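Extended Data, panel c. Modelled sequence:
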Amino acid sequence: MSSQSSKITIIVGAQWGDEGKGKITDFFAGESDFVVRFHGGNNAGHTVIVNKNTYKLHLIPSGVVYGKPISVIGNGVVIDPKVLLDEIKYIKEKGINPKLIISDRAHVIMPYHISLDRALSNHQGKLAAGSTGKGIAPVYADKMFRNGIRMIDLLDSNVFEEKLKKGYLFSKKIIEGALLQKFETPIHKILKDYSHYGEKLAPYICDTSVELYKAYQNGKSILFEGAQGISLDVDHGIYPFTTSSNTATGHISTGTGVTFRTINRVIGVVKGYLSRVGESPLPTEITGAEAESLRTKGKEYGTTTGRPRRVGWLDLVQVRQAVRVNGLTEIALTKLDILNNYKTLKVCLSYEIEGKTVTEMPAGLSEYRKAKPIYKTLPGWNSLPEKVWEKGYDSLPQELKSYISFIEDEVDCPVKIVSVGPQRHETILR
């Protein structure tokens, strides 16, 4: 079978992350042979709820819950091996034996990366991105400094020791000499612990790019699961309040080692409102009692950190950028049930910046700080019909259908998936 018959689907976040990508990935995973993570690390948090069972995942693709697809952690992902081993154990305790392969080229988060991450967050003042403290930025930096350690290195004791000495001393000098913090974990302990992690993970480690290429050539269905969202992309997001990887669809080639000539679907996940963890300007932010009500109703607390998320009205300037940068073919609109019983809903169409109307996301931080949302107020809807997912799109309240149509028209992208609850089956396809 030729690669022309292979089905490629990409799911990415179109806001600040926490849009419900885990659920949407899980929804499509049953049709997939492979589900692939291609960037980020355990700073991501995807929640999947199936038959009232909740699964919280950070490294393993959300499709693992289905059992059928092979889960792939690509080379663009950075891996904390202890966290990964704990997650494998967690999945097994849930009754799932993960079909998992891990790229031999993926970089490893070391203890000094975590210490450096925390030290840097204190050092960056008002420009701190609100790091999860998981070592993500330092490990990506070490990758570019060519001080990194890859998964394959954990399987070669001589090479691992050689690279560890180099990376350990480099980071220790920065932590203690430049940032005046202590790093006391001895190198021999790291060598011992991480060699042990490598032994345990060895059965999963392989050249995933070769496996994915074979799958593509053989017509397999491949689903790519993005982490975070467009506004956290290190190039296209609100820099420096971003993550340390590229969250956009263009990274799937470099993050997996395979270039796919034909991509069938690029699904951007958009929450009916927005939320974010961390600092940065947030033009449509809601504060006070109204924010607390929405936060509580939507359970807007970080999967990875547990931190309360900031919340705001839907920002179509942001979604417009996501459509353009990611080449979205469609939108999955999520958490619409959380907006039940609002009399009116605000939607941001554009920004006012120093008297000018701006419809696209500005690059300048000073501009973004001055951005004032220009809203359109739309009528809300009451409670959704019972088991509305069984009745289909036409049974939705007219106000909700108008809300959806308005979004489609403004960002020039169709809403094909409507999520009306946290569980897999609470989903309507158009």
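The chain has a mean pLDDT of 92. This feature is highlighted in the accompanying rendering.
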